[in-house]
Write a structure and sequence with these properties.
It is built from 7 helices and 17 strands. It is an alpha/beta fold. A hairpin with a 5-residue loop joins strand 6 and strand 7. The longest helix has 17 residues. The chain is elongated and about 75 Å long. This is FAD/NAD(P)-binding domain-containing protein.
Length: 300
């Protein structure tokens, strides 16, 4: 329907995408393929010929970051400086985006009836209005440090991650990761993998790792065994009541953790791998959101 409606189109259809991570880039590139008479590149079970009709389309991606950050690799990024350098690619360094406009900025508001978005551009810090025919919200969740790096440019990101890795490497008496969910497990395991001589302890408040995940108990048990095989030490069923940041006589810093059993643990670096992520939907009309700020979607 879109193809025939726009067959005689006077101008390209403007598609504005908020977010240039997995969902945003996936949308942009598949749409570009479909509008160019090709199979969408993410569809590998293709049969027959693609629909050859072409649709003029002008795709713009707005992201607060200056590039694509491979977010799910954060635990390895925060352990390996070699890997960290590869996990962020500025949008202007990605050949596949050459026919897509990218803007570094933050979508502040969309007015769906007027079909326009207000963006604060990162460089000018000024609001700009961007008209669109179709808007795609792919702005995901906001996640706290150290679950993911907080930098918005590649240059800052390199500084942020390398300084964290240095403090993990230099931590006398080892590193403690607090929180045995998926992120904490992966962080502890990646540090041990990259720095095998560093002492790594994971503390989790429940008796089972991954306790809040809807996974079978034998999966959780396998995760515990696999983690212990890497050499990570586990303390389960203990809460961290307090973290004291202290200074040695020689001026070096260390932390003391007080656990619910009364035990004290001393280490050179504490990583809190727990945080509640919040939807990044502040720009959406309030009526479209539920009480947790997620977009209310219809089954279709
Ligand atoms: C440490 C970690 C490990 C994970 N591992 C896995 C895994 O192994 N497998 C898996 O399937 N999932 C994993 N996940 C979950 C996965 O990261 C998410 O499902 C995925 O990132 C969602 O992608 P997205 O494109 O929807 O949003 P996001 O990745 O959250 O990206 C949103 C983008 O929008 C931008 N943005 C936000 N607000 C605005 C705004 N107002 N204006 C402009 N831009 C904005 C952000 O800068 C960001 O680039 C992991 C998550 C974490 C934290």
């Amino acid at each position: 329907m879109v193809a025939s409606n726009f067959a005689l189109q006077a101008r390209p259809i403007k598609v504005l995408i908020a977010g240039g991570s997995y969902a945003g880039l996936g949308t942009a590139l598949n749409l570009l393929d479909l509008c160019s008479g090709r199979f969408p590149r993410f569809e590998y079970n293709v049969e027959g010929e693609p629909d050859p009709r072409k649709i003029g389309v002008e795709i713009t991606i707005v992201d607060e970051r200056d590039g694509y950050y491979h977010l799910i690799s954060s635990p390895l990024v925060l352990a390996s400086s070699d890997f960290a350098k590869k996990a962020w690619r500025r949008f202007d360094e990605i050949p596949a985006l050459k026919n897509i406009k990218t803007i570094q900025g933050s979508v502040q508001r969309i007015e769906s009836k007027l079909q326009k978005a207000t963006i604060i551009e990162a460089n000018s810090k000024l609001p700009t209005e961007v008209p669109y025919d179709f808007f795609v919200g792919a702005s995901g969740l906001r996640r706290a440090w150290p679950v993911v790096p907080q930098s918005l440019t590649k240059a800052d990101y390199i500084g942020e991650t390398l300084s964290h890795i240095k403090s993990v490497e230099a931590a006398a008496n080892g590193v403690v990761v607090v929180g045995g969910g998926a992120v904490g497990i992966e962080m502890a395991a990646e540090i041990k993998l990259v720095m095998p001589t560093q002492r790594v302890t994971l503390i989790h408040s429940r008796e089972n790792l991954l306790s809040s995940e809807p996974l079978p108990n034998d999966f959780k048990e396998r995760s515990r065994l696999a983690l212990e095989e890497t050499g990570v030490e586990l303390i389960l069923g203990e809460r961290v009541l307090e973290t004291l940041n202290l200074t040695n006589e020689d001026g070096s810093q260390y932390s003391e953790l007080i656990l619910s059993s009364g035990a004290h643990i001393t280490c050179g670096c504490v990583i809190h791998a727990m945080s509640k992520s919040v939807p990044s939907t502040a720009y959406m009309p309030q009526a479209s959101l539920d009480d947790q700020q997620y977009v209310q979607v219809t089954p279709s």
